[in-house]
Amino acid sequence: MLESLWVWTLATGLISLILYLLGTWTHDHFSKKNVPHLKPVPFFGNMGPVTLRIASFPELVVGWYNRLKGNKFGGVYEFLNPVILLRDPELIKMVTVKDFEHFLDHRAPISEEAEPLFGKALFNLKGQRWKDMRSTLSPAFTSSKMKNMFVLITECGKQLTDFLEKCIKDKNLTIEGCKIEREGNILAVEMKDLFTRYTNDVIATSAFGISCDSLNNPGNEFYATGRYVTNFSGIRALIFFGYMFSPKLMKLLNIKFISKSSGNFFRSLVHNTMSTREEQGIVRPDMIHLLMQTKKGTVQGDDNGTTNVKSTNTKWDDDDITAQAFLFFLAGFDTASTLLCFASHLLAMHPDIQSRLQDEIDQTLKEDGGKLTYEAVHGMKYLDMVVSETLRLYPPAVLVDRRCVKQYTLPAEPRCTLKPGDGVYIPIYALHHDPDYFPDPEKFDPERFSDENKGNIKACTYLPFGSGPRNCIGSRFALMEAKIALVQLLSRFNLKVVPKTPIPIKISKSGFNMTIDGGFWIGLEQRVKNATKLQND
Ligand code: HEM
Questions:
Q1: How big, in percent rounded to 5, are the helix, strand and coil portions of the chain?
Q2: ipTM, 2 decimals?
Q3: Quick one: which residues bind heme (predicted)?
């Protein structure tokens, strides 16, 4: 009896020791290098609060940033992976811009072998392949290409506002599938549901060349698949954590981030669209057309769309092309709708700002005879200030990373040399909320971005689209898409607080998506004095 107790105690002790060693074997990385760092917890490192849903992702990052105050950089542990968090804007500039060649790649936990649709996409490509693909795709995002897509996006904005008007006017209309409720003359709308349908339709038409109308056809397969693949909460957040913790283990266990059916859905969609267009000689001003040109190496690169044919030596196959279309979808579906949700919430909460913005919209449309043009949208200064301030307060990308590819000594004290494979974090959300850079940081104040004030914003403290050559390739597209929706919405409706509007908002703790608890419920009231009815309507 005594003997078996001993065996049990010994076995338990041994297992605990092995587990402890397994869960901490990298956790002396920073102390050995004398780098200031946060104390890690076995296995979790410094990810515990978000993994256990004690904190939201932005709260976690602000916590790291504040605890490392007084240092230009510091170490944190993403589970077992040591990562350097850059606090100092000068250092961020060095890493992302000046010495960018040392930090070419994202860390990208999901590899090409594990998930080809992820791994082959621009965001995850590494080294020369990334350079080739980036320079091949860049001409697809010039202002002349954006101008061509403007019409497609405006059509989606019109579908959105027509649908809402129909819901308000026709009291007998049953609204199924969408999260919309009637409260007298006001529509209470869950904006995330509404705007993901809009961004879905925008990306469906401009990246895949198909028309969805997800408000009138709420259950369409494109939208359902989009919601699934862009959901980084619940079980999918756990899978993502799994990839962060150990990509090898996830591969070994054959746990996929994208289901086979969703992957096949996108593959056949892109493949069929390309074949149909090839066979029938269809040309449409959208991304799939540009991707087809990319494949042939004939994207026209200059902003006038004339000469300057771009070609690289790299050959891209159908899977490479599908991965880019898929990434545009992934990148555009959630981020742009998040921006629109927070903008609507902030405008409903600040009627004075909303009314000033509506004045600008009405005035601009009046001057242009009610026609919404590319130039008019881009000329609205106050609109730009509101959107910029929304992206400061609630950046859809809370944090971005880089992977060191060439040995690099950070130009700061204490001396820290990064080796190929080492990771760095750029804490976007925390920089945007640092009172040293943005006084009274929780205040929604578009004036920070006025012509007089925006010059005072310190370089590399405002980074909603990242920084340097690896920044967001779709930023112009995203801003145009969001501005079109806001102009169309605010020219026809007032945004109001309703009983279901969560006040104050609480950022969700359930995953990586930047969203809130309770849903973005906002009231829409048709404007009585609809100064200028859009001609494009
Ligand atoms: C408000 C909306 C958006 C936000 C806030 C956003 C933000 C970002 C950020 C922070 C990055 C990483 C940049 C870095 O590491 O420095 C990124 C990368 C990227 N974004 Fe966006 N994005 C948005 C919309 C879009 C849209 C609509 C598209 C495509 C149509 C897009 C395509 C991409 C791609 C392809 C990359 C990877 C670039 C590369 O690695 O070369 N994004 N985005």
A1: 50, 10, 35
A2: 0.99
A3: 472
